[in-house]
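User: I'll paste a sequence; please echo it back and then give the predicted structure.

Assistant: Echoing your sequence first, then the prediction.
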Amino acid sequence: MTRMLDSCRNSLESLSLEHFACNTNPRQLDLHLPNLTQLILYACDMKIFKDLVKETNLPKLAQFSISFINLTAVNRISKFMENHNVRHGGVRSVDLCCSPIRDDVADEEEPALTLVSCFSGVNKFKLTFKTSFLSDYAHKFVALTEMMASLGGWDLTCGEIDVEMVPHFFASEYKGPRDLDFGSALVIAVLAGMANWRGLAKTSLKFIGHQINTTNNNNK
């Protein structure tokens, strides 16, 4: 792959990379593409993409998208920021797909602040995430609100939030109670976090829910 990229390094403008394998010691990529404007990453393991988005190596990069494709794992902004410690002031658009809230929820406020700092020039942001029913969700939604508020450090002209409330990842095994207020509380948590976002001229909010047949645990 390195030889292929070297052959077109001066002409390549858009690149999509997918990494599905899990490796305890993956070889890290180091891209030098002077005319690349769009980079799309799909990853199970962020280590392969450690500090990949460098302004010195990708000086014209304007659109950056990253998706964690293993949604049964813990894939949060913090996991990305653990492997990204460089700044790129030229990026104008960030598209992030992750699963920020789980039963083992962690504090995402500081990683979100770091994300804003690393890509300080962003004016267009899209966040896509999926969540299933969480027990004892009240304090987890407080953390979600704080994370969303931290993302308000950008002067955005466009913000897009897509939230999908999916059946439990292990629905066939889940026997816990169904709290009908969960969806409403999730919407309120997201909106509360966005209350002080600045400069938005265009905003899109999408919340998608699924009904579960509690008798046989099949989706309706």
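The radius of gyration is 19 Å. The chain is about 20% helix and 20% strand.
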